[in-house]
Amino acid sequence: MEALKDHCNGMYKEMESKLFSIRSEYPEAWDWSKASIEVTSAYMVRLKDYIQQHPFKWRSEEVFFFRNIKPLFLKKAIFFSEVWNMEMDKPLPPNGKEDLLNFICNQQNKLEEFFVSNSFLYDYYRDHQDYMDFKLFVRQPSNRFRFCNIPLKVLPMLYYGDAGFSTGYDYLFAQFKAFEKFKMHLQAEYDKALLLTDKKPTLGSFSSNASNFDELTHLFKKVTGPHYLDTGQVMSLQDISIIIHKFRSYPQQPAKECALHQLISETAHLPDRLKEVVLSICKEWENETKDIPYQN
């Protein structure tokens, strides 16, 4: 048990040091969440490899690992994924901050719904109870559906990953930890949004790599949204990506006539280099969508 604890604690401290450096280097959530996901993913692989190379000697070791160690690593991956997803969907409304505040409130409500729907096990987690640990945190329990006649949830995530590296409930406990942290992040974002003014940002210009999709979409989100001209609804990054995909099918169309024109407001103008940037992105995406042979 001590060897397991020492190795995993050392690995966790190493990961935390790298994550701290990322937060120091990247002030924007969009950037630090993306970089952090890559780091946490790599450490999850290392953690799995270690467990495969050092099988548990006692059931108590297995329980301790899946209740206390793996969720510490996994919560980081979940938290950074939630931040990234939020940044991807977050609106920057054309006429003020109301849409952004409503968006954050909806995210907070979803978290509360999650905690309520898992209230029995969330209380078990918060109160540091352990009487069901030998049922929840072993990979092959004798009866997955009940513990001392108490019905238990069967968690679908058990079947999504490696059966040798998951009990299902380790993921749920990692969610508890991650969502508690994400709840604080949402409150900080809400407080920050309250300080926003209704002044519209200027268009700016492209100053870095013309094929950088992140730069392009960030620019569009700075310019009045963007929003759909017919409904006024604020676009997500998925919306922007879909429209650019439509543009790929009709690259000969004048920019002012193609679907890409929806990306800007009625009061903004299409940047001179926009078509060049989009065509460059389309060329970059060709490698992602073309068929490739597998080596059998």
Structural topology:
Elements: H1 2-25, H2 29-53, H3 59-89, H4 98-117, H5 119-126, H6 133-136, E1 146-147, E2 150-151, H7 169-194, H8 213-222, H9 237-249, H10 274-289
Antiparallel strand pairs: 1-2
The low-confidence runs, each spanning 5 or more residues with pLDDT under 50, are 200-212, 222-226, 248-272
What proportion of the residues is helical, as a percent range? Answer: 55-70%
Give me the number of helical elements: 10
Taken in chain order, the helices and strands follow as HHHHHHEEHHHH
For the terminal residues, how far apart are their CA atoms?
41 Å
Structural account:
- This protein is mostly helical and 296 residues long.
- The chain has two domains: 2-194, no CATH class; 213-287, no CATH class.
- It has helices spanning 2-25, 29-53, 59-89, 98-117, 119-126, 133-136, 169-194, 213-222, 237-249, 274-289; strands spanning 146-147, 150-151.
- A two-stranded antiparallel sheet has the order 1-2.
- A hairpin with a 2-residue loop joins strand 1 (146-147) and strand 2.
